[in-house]
Write a structure and sequence with these properties.
The complex is a heterodimer of chains A (199) and B (424). By secondary structure, chain A is mostly helical. In chain A, 44% of the residues lie in helices and 0% in strands. In chain A, helix 2 packs across helix 4 (93-102) and helix 5 crosses helix 9. Chain A starts with 38 loop residues before the first helix and ends with a helix. With 424 residues, chain B is of the alpha/beta class. In chain B, helix 3 (53-65) links the parallel strand 2 (45-49) and strand 3 (70-74). Chain B is globular. In chain B, 55% of the residues are buried. Classes of the chains: A mainly alpha (199), B alpha/beta (424). At the A-B interface, helix 1 and helix 3 of A face helix 3, helix 5, helix 10, strand 24 and strand 25 of B.
Chain lengths: 199, 424
Amino acid sequence: MRTTIRLVAGSLSLMTGFAAGASAGPLDVPGATKALACSACHGPGGQSPSSTIPIIAGLAPWYFKKAVEDYATGRRPSPEMEPYAKYVREAGVDDVAAYFAAQSRQPTAVAVDAAAAARGRVASQQCVVCHGESGRGDPARSIPDLSGQAPGYLRNQMLLFKADRRSPGDQAVKTVKELMKSVPDDTIADLAAYYSSLR
Amino acid sequence: MTRLTRREFLRTSGRSAGLGLLAAAGVAGCAPALKGDFAPKTGRRVVVIGGGWGGATAAKYVRLGDPSIEVVLLEPNRRFVSCPFSNLVLSGVRSIDSLTFGYGGLRGHGVRILHASASAVEPDARRVRVGEGYLQYDRLIVSPGVEFQWEQVDGLAAARDRVLHAWKAGPQTVDLARQLEAMPDGGVFVLTVPPVAYRCPPGPYERACQVAFYLKTKKPRSKLLVLDANANVVSKAGLFRAAWKDYPNLEYRASNKVVKVDPSTREVTTELGDRVKYDVVNLIPPQRAGTIAVQADLVGADKRWCEVNHLTYESAKHANVHVVGDSTIGLPVPKSGNIANAMGKICAVAVVHLLNGKEPPPMAPGNTCYSWVNDREAIAVVNAYKVEGGKVVQIEQKLTPGQSAEWAQNAVGWATGIWQDILG
């Protein structure tokens, strides 16, 4: 239950919150002020420091926009994200998506059990088919990048897929849901550890 | 001590003599150094009063928004203790240490921290009085949190050391946990809820869950009695009432405002004249804006809370003075930590724009608020807002469909993220 919180004292990672252009001030970057509401949970610049909240720094705009639309319409049910997705739509999803896409993404700082990650690697043969050896996915086929993502988030999403609680009826995630049905929960945790450990 | 002092001095000392003196004063906490204009302003300066959720966020984000602006933060406490999650200290689920952080991250952003209290604000002269001296500012951000209206409960002012509020996380949180632990099994714990508006609307009911959980598992013959000044549970009512079904040891009485406490007889008296005996009492007093906001004439006609511009958080009463956090009123938002953090960022952006002669962009806050109902499950309410016609209006409010370990995991994720956003 006790969670170790590491507050990064250095400013390097935090300055990603305002990736300044050469001439414009940090706040003049398009989307910068609109994205500030997101940093409470997703961390400065979208570099989430926690296990369960996803890193959205460097997120591909197509993925960001689909997620916002699915959350806002309730297709991807989330009491937390539905209101915020509506906020993002109100503020301008293109600006916010472009802002996060432009942030340099660091792998999660949450450490995972090396043995679990090793087991996850062995169990990942099916995942590799779409997400690739590197786990980086393929934007051309709408396959998201899993590498270095927060482990608790990856695990929870796989569990949601398995129980068909994420985006029911969405053809884009039909295959992954079918696949997850046969994966034991322990193996899902191992897969999450493995993909979050990829650099 | 000498080494710490020197290190801290070096870390915070500026190039000008004034800032060096400021740092020294902050380290030593010695009033005699604070005379006259003890840290003369060399460029544009923002002074922030209060290093809590609103003020610390604002201080950091002014620096991130424009590093050429000097930021001085006045905060008497050397450590930041998180109110959110502090109810878990009462049930023994979390330690107070796990909620306690330093201000080193803010120093890393170039925020100059003076561990002292502001004693007065002089808006016309644009200066803040500290000790026997003063600090000049171009813009002031006031984030003093809440102060208790001790006088509203007969006998409370004289019994402050024994009748605990534990409504500002810190020593009182730990003391109340000790009182709960020391209570004999079979005892009665009385928790009183103040009338709205107060800091953290669901907080008292989350606390009821944590105390009831503790008693159920550790002192099964004991009872929790909640005396609420309000006509119903103020926030997440359905979810809390559902959670309380697991706590037959919890008795909730609405419309039972406590007006008197007598520690000698261990008794509280309600407005209706009912006398209630307790073994341990946790009396959360009625609240208003922090004292400096009242002294600085920032509160409105109600003498309790501060009206602000919805886009800039500039005071409705004084120019160049902004107010953020629990002290504000008039926006359709709760007095929550998440809202204070959001206000801190929006105010910082506005101040940076105004000091650079630009129009501040319209920005709306957001609110994510988790409550723990036992040691592993939580519930949540989330609010989204937009700016319309210069005012903040709600887009939507959403509640979790029930309580679950999933929301508790997300609560930990939220806390980790927002502590980083404030202090990292």
